[in-house]
Design a protein that fits this description.
By secondary structure, the chain is α/β, with parallel strands linked by helices. It is built from 11 helices and 10 strands. The chain is globular and about 55 Å long. Bound molecules: pyridoxal-5'-phosphate.
């Protein structure tokens, strides 16, 4: 049995061929299934490294702003390791998401305002109480955790890697892992700043800049913005091909329509989130066609 506790995140998530990849995008397209991680998201890669660093440095409480996957993952990993999570969420958080986060009993504080207002509270709390700051943009351990994803896909020598992107912790980490393994595919940041259906990438807050732009530019990649219409279409298409992706992570495959691909290109789309965590949203999307 794999233990996710007190060790490096050495588990290997599956890389599967997207059956209609060639037909839909004109290349060999693979999905890296981060949705199979313990809490259904790539965020577990970062959380595992956060745990290691906290234990090494003697922290008891981690603090983070998030209303979704990052909060759920951090809370679960704190719970597994008998550490504490304090989560700040913006006042616009949905009940469906709050219910999920509450499973692992973190302390939750609702902040008047949005994600950036919640992030400000994290900075203050970390400074005032000496908590471990696990917020995107302030936590190198999360980048290190995501680098393991890059390391795992490097042996397949991808020409293009697509990461759903908001703060960019994920993309920057994947790029680090690939580079360290001597592979440099074009890095595509799949974004959707004004989306109404892919909360996890809404806002495109870019807290990891300038590292995100450096990764995209140094690799010869690009930023792609996808519409909600494209996200709906891709979420449905992936579901019909056996890949249950939340809309935010379907952005990786949706972005391919905006990328020049060669017939023999090997493309890896990171599927960062499991659809089953958001049943209301998924029902609405799958029933829309
Ligand atoms: C499912 C999913 N995909 C992608 C992202 C974007 O990750 P990052 O903020 O590291 O760019 C998130 C972040 O919340 C997410 O939950």
């Amino acid at each position: 049995m794999i233990s996710y506790k007190l060790q490096e995140p050495t588990w290997n998530t599956p890389l599967v061929k997207i059956p209609k990849g060639r037909e839909r995008y004109g290349a060999n397209v693979f999905a890296k299934l981060e949705a199979v991680n313990p809490t259904g998201t790539h965020k577990d890669r970062g959380s595992a490294m956060v745990v290691l660093e906290m234990i090494e440095k003697g922290y008891g409480t981690a603090v983070c702003a998030s209303s979704g996957n990052a909060a759920l993952s951090l809370s679960a990993f704190m719970y597994m390791n008998e550490l504490k999570a304090k989560i700040f969420v913006g006042s616009n958080v949905s009940k469906e998401k709050l219910d999920l986060i509450r499973i692992f009993k973190p302390e939750i504080e609702i902040v008047e305002g949005d994600y950036m207002a919640a992030t400000q509270k994290v900075i203050e709390a970390a400074e005032k109480h000496g908590y471990y700051n696990a917020n995107a943009g302030y936590c190198q351990a999360k980048i290190v955790g995501n680098a393991y994803i890059g390391r795992e896909i490097a042996p397949f020598s991808p020409d293009v890697v697509v990461c759903p992107t908001n703060n960019g912790t994920h993309l920057v980490g994947v790029w680090e892992g690939l580079k360290r393994a001597g592979v440099s595919p074009r890095m595509i940041a799949a974004t959707s700043q004004f989306t109404k259906i892919a909360d996890s990438i809404h806002g495109f807050y870019r807290l990891e800049e300038p590292k995100i732009s450096n990764a995209v530019n140094d690799s010869g990649g690009q930023f792609v913005s996808v519409s909600d219409k494209e996200l709906v279409e891709e979420t449905i298409s992936l579901a019909k091909q056996g890949i249950l992706s939340e809309p935010a992570s379907a952005a990786s495959a949706a972005a391919l329509k905006h990328v020049d691909l060669e017939e023999n290109d090997i493309v890896v789309c990171i599927i960062t989130g499991n659809a089953l965590k958001f049943p209301k949203r998924m029902r609405k999307i799958l029933c829309s066609r």
